[in-house]
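Support request, please re-run this one:
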Amino acid sequence: MFAQHLKKSARRINLCAISLVLLVAAQAWTQSHQRLAVPPGVMAPPWLEGRRQSQLATIGQFEVYCDFGFVDQVAASGIDFRNRVVDDSGKAYKPVHYDHGNGLAVADIDADGLLDLFFVTQVGGNQLWRNIGGGRFENITPEILELTDRVSVSASFADIDNDGDADLYVSAVREGNRLFENTGGGGFRDISAKSGTDYRGHSSSAIFFDYDRDGLLDMFLVNVGVYTTDEQAAVSARNGHYYVGFKDAFSGHLMPERVEQSILYRNSGDNRFVDVSAAAGLEDLGWSGDASPLDANGDGWPDLYVLNMQGHDQYYENVAGEYFVDKSREVFPRTPWGSMGIQVFDFDNDGRQDIFVTDMHSDMSEDRGPEQEKRKSAMHHGEEFLLSGGQSIFGNAFFRGKGGGRYVEISDRIGAENYWPWGLSLGDFNADGYEDVFITASMNYPYRYGVNSLLLNNRGRKFLDGEFILGVEPRAGGQTAMPWFSLDCAGGDQRHPECASQGSELHPGKRRGHVEVWGALGSRSAAVFDLDRDGDLDIVTNEFNAGPMVLVSDLSTRNKTLHFVEIELIGTDSNRSGLGATVMVGAGGRRYNKVYDGQSGYLSQSVYPLYFGLGEAAVIDRIEVGWPSGIKQVLDGPLASNRTVQIREP
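Re-run finished. Output below.
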């Protein structure tokens, strides 16, 4: 008995000793490994819950259906892609255009009837994910698409050779853009050099449209401007290198030597493209990240609206497919100063196309609190920096089409403002026949967290904020930040600003040991499509330096009277995908109008069906298609809803 007592006492002493050792070790680790939130509070924003409660209190204003929501199902989807960024947006942070992030494109690349995903990243390799049904995906990335030797930017799917499958264009920073021909079944072949589209520079988006209506898709390549030096640096977190950005990159518009003209390529057939910018009179010199085709004057020829992230946007009118005329200030006398994303759509179902432009860079002139995000920015830069003649809008713009090439700006009237926006993606999320908008937002390290916006269209009269009501915000688990980079403040990172800043009480005045720096989460691009084929629209994002969100809607289970139709176009005289076609669906005494432009989101173009919510109408009365070739086609009803209707050009 006594011996057993001694053994138990010895065990207790040993356990106490072990606990003491572990406690001392934990304290030592804590002292040498610190977690640093930049800015303070980014890991648990104190305003987030109040913002949610305030939005929930507005539900009474909604005349449209909002009793549904989204849940992030990224784990269930099987997608483990992660976007990674260069050090200029992390450990070696400086305000430079790398922080604009990357695109995300959608297409059925293997013709199995399911839409697949292509994610773009700056570091570590792009990835192609095949939709295998039921909301699940598998990684089928061929090595040729990874492009690990360069910083990729945008992705555009388009059928450039009219063979019925989606080809892929990927832009990059200085190492050469790439065009890949889809060889069928998910295979791709690099035809960049042969095609003449292997431009080297600071490219952003690539917009495919048939400007001369010859049945072949042409391309407008958007180039930002020279924002990098010739110095190359290694990426600290992964293998790879990048061109270091100018410290004054956002003053580049003041320096003519940093201008980089965007390029109009004409598709001459046989997968070859020719630079016709000068011949067509379209030599845009703005600092642009994106553009969109539109038929502003209603003459049937696709015009072009080109964004400028540091100055006036430009509008080029197409003259019968022969050349373009700059009518920017005549048609749009005032535009956002820092334009970033654009969508063209019929907001109020009046048959006229409207234009929604987001403005990121005006928001960077003023640090606004969360309670002020619905107002325009108070610009703090002078005219010597703006160079816009006092004719800029310092925030988002919404140009309502009035017909005859006339527009009126109504963004504040309809609630179209938000903070730190990147791009827009369209979708009728509640299937009531009115297009809603998802806007990616946030600035990441070293800024506070910013919410994504989901604007529900209140019957063409106003947008209502719905991101908290519909479960888009807060993010899964309430997460608002993540580890951004690590520092060895006792070693090679002693001079880093975060090491030199005020440390813990144990080490006043300077941080020591290893520091894990946390920064805000933030989305850049998004795609809206029915990923699980249940009849409602879901949202997939490409985050900045993080894994994506796969926001799956439960509308189809919540709304038992859901009615919709998807329209898939097959061109014959027109381009095979029908890009540029107008489609009208008549149902229940209403007319719903869309133009198929493939503009799926920021830095992205996709090939997917047009989705029409039909409200309470279970039967389609009529479908009208205006093909780019000029052919008008009518399908008379009654036609059943809740299916995909394939329409071939006669």
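The CA atoms of residues 195 and 271 lie 6 Å apart. Residues 2-32 form the longest helix (31 residues).
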